[in-house]
Amino acid sequence: MGVMDKELDRKLKQFFNHLADRPLEPTDHAYVPFLEEGSDAVDPISALAKRISWSEAASVSLLSGQRGTGKSTELRRLRKILSDDDCVVFFCDMRDYMNLTTPVEISDFLISIMSGLGDAVNDLFQRDLAKETLWTRLFNFLETEVQVKDIKIGVDAGMAKGEFVASLRDDPTFRSELQQHLRGHVARLVKQAHQFASEVVDFVRERKNNPDQKVVLIVDSVEQIRGVGSDAANVYKSVENLFSGHAESLHIPKLHVVYTIPPYLTPLVPNLGQLFGGNALCNLPSIHVRRRNGDSDKSGLDIMTRIIENRESGWPQFFAREHLDRLALSAGGDIRGFFYLIKDCLVRASSMKEAKLPVPHQILTNAENQLRREMLPLPAEDVIWLKRITATKQPELDTIKELPHLARFFDTRVVINYRNDVDWYDVHPLLIDTL
């Protein structure tokens, strides 16, 4: 490469890295507040914050959305809104405490949440309240009442909190055996978890010298629980049972809790919000780049362009606006898929023997074909189902036995969730022609 070629390659690399997939704080220069703008739609995050602000008693709120719709970023905005409203907000990423590909039960779910809450308290107040109360009681409970001595890595072996949490997250055998032992002791475990949460709120109120201090716990990444292989059906069934069968246990005294939930629960349990106290379910759909009839939506395409502009202001050197619109439509409004296509185009452009800018249409086509190949092949039974979704714009879930298939469609973005006053669904744009 010549000098100019090396400089061009440097710029391509810079653009590539500016599209790193990461949650953004609302103060980040890359953040685009598109949910907050416009007079025709209600910002779901502001509405969620208002419900918590207005709730005098403990509350539960549910946030759903597919991967890549910006949930973790918007939860950080929720944290800021609530913090600015004088709430004390704890944030717990369940990827640090749970195995997200194995069946979950209320017992290990609550242990994981309380672990995260304890760590968050320690981070904010430099006080390991969990070590002083939660873990002492929990280990004694497991050893004396549940009698888990036959678990190879058990509390009788002197397992420390860190080892216990790591085993619960990373060792499926340990987790399964612990679940089995706790099934006859769920009520007692729930009571212990609630007791610890109550102690946390009392501690915060004492520190803040405010007996009415509102305390919020945001539980992120629960929506990422997904089944893999032969155990997939059991995983999805366990998630359904967790939220539909244990709603009362997930109401935590004195706390205002926000749980993220997987999108496949919405059509499965239509009145899920009512089970958790009547708060409306908050849903983050993909950016609306096309209407139900297939026509493009300029306002959505403008948002996608602004997202790129905030990441890389020099994008017009590499893409014409029509290129970005094309890739946004090909990604179906999915931000993560949009970034995938652009980054692939940048890599392909850097590999050309002779640089041609803006990026040639053939490179866009090649990137789209690559993303399409990653979603193929489609089994014949999937094609039949997907044709029905394309026709009705609904999930078309006939029986509960089909839930793992629907969940897989959502997880792999084969089916995308949109909203125009009401929720609707469609097959990924790059797959339409294959149907």
Strand and helix map with partners:
Elements: H1 3-18, H2 44-54, E1 59-65, H3 71-84, E2 88-93, H4 106-125, H5 129-146, H6 161-170, H7 172-182, H8 186-208, E3 215-220, H9 232-245, H10 247-250, E4 255-261, H11 265-268, H12 272-275, E5 282-284, H13 298-311, H14 321-330, H15 335-350, H16 361-374, H17 380-392, H18 403-411, E6 415-420, E7 422-427
Helix pairs in contact: 1-15, 2-3, 4-5, 4-8, 5-8, 6-7, 13-14, 14-15, 15-16
Strand proportion, as a percent range, falls in 5-15%
Radius of gyration: 24 Å
Which CATH C-level class of the largest domain is it?
A: Alpha Beta
Q: Order of strands in the sheet with the most strands?
A: 2-3-4-1-5
- Quick check: average pLDDT? 89
Query: Given the C-alpha coordinates, what overall shape results?
Result: globular
Number of strands: 7
Give the tally of structural domains. 3
Largest sheet: 5 strands, parallel
**Which fold name fills CATH's third level, the topology of the largest domain?**
Rossmann fold
Outline the low-pLDDT stretches.
152-158
Helix content percent band: 40-55%
Structural class: alpha/beta
The name of the CATH architecture of the largest domain is: 3-Layer(aba) Sandwich
First-last Cα distance = 44 Å
Instruction: Give the SSE string.
Output: HHEHEHHHHHEHHEHHEHHHHHHEE
User: How many helices in DSSP terms?
Assistant: 18
